[in-house]
Amino acid sequence: MRFRTAATAACGTLTLLAVVAPAAHADSHKGDTRFTSVTFSRSTVNVGVSAAQTLTVTATAKDDSGISGIYGGKLVSPDRHIAFPDDGSCSRPTSTTMKCVWKYVLDANDSDDYADLRNAEAGTWVLDAEAAAKDQDFYTLDSSKSVKVKRYAKLSVTKAGPEPVAKGRTLTVTGALTRADWNKNTYAGFAAQHVALQFKKSGSSSYATVKTVTTDSRGGLRTKVTAKASGTWRWKFAGTGTTATATAGGDSVTAR
Q1: Which of 91, 108, 174, 212 is the most core-located residue (most Cβ within 10 A)?
Q2: What domains appear along the chain, each with residue ranges and CATH number?
Q3: What secondary structure letter does DSSP report for 112?
Q4: pTM greater than 0.70
């Protein structure tokens, strides 16, 4: 994404505006104009610090008099920044409908420093678009259609030891939780987060949560458990409203 002025954005080029949008309010409409379908290619977009992520939004509007145009197609972040699509096209499937497809690229490490995603933008983004009918009716989407844009999270490979371990003895299990820092383009420890320690007994196909552990000030995880059977230990993070879920690679331990 690149920051542009509002005038440039109106020309349809890729844009993430460094301006504050008006506060969101409920959808508004006049007459029989309506959006019959609004779909997102992904319900959640998890963005790290290097690889750009794409999102496609498809919107179809209808009015008995016909649709003269669908305008806007903006995504608005929680801190009210505006993202315009990189690419878009519209068609008329019928005489009364119009369908628009918009493509967005979300990037925390764009070549243009002004375009980087910022941490404050993580969370729920809403689609802002207006369908205008030929008879002057309209329907404006303000906040009813949304998508999650989250900071990517990682759990280091689980370490459990000693291995092998005698049944009934203590195992020490460690790990670390980090998440993308969009402000600094790096991964940083995610402190004070509850992470589930899970165990899958040998021969089983599913994990069960044994306990929940809180990450330390650097995102570190460390706990002790009693080894009752052979199997695989792993960490699992449920995520937050601004941060993605994460599952660590497991460590198999033989209990004798």
Answers
A1: 108
A2: 6-151 (2.60.40.10), 153-253 (2.60.40.730)
A3: S
A4: yes
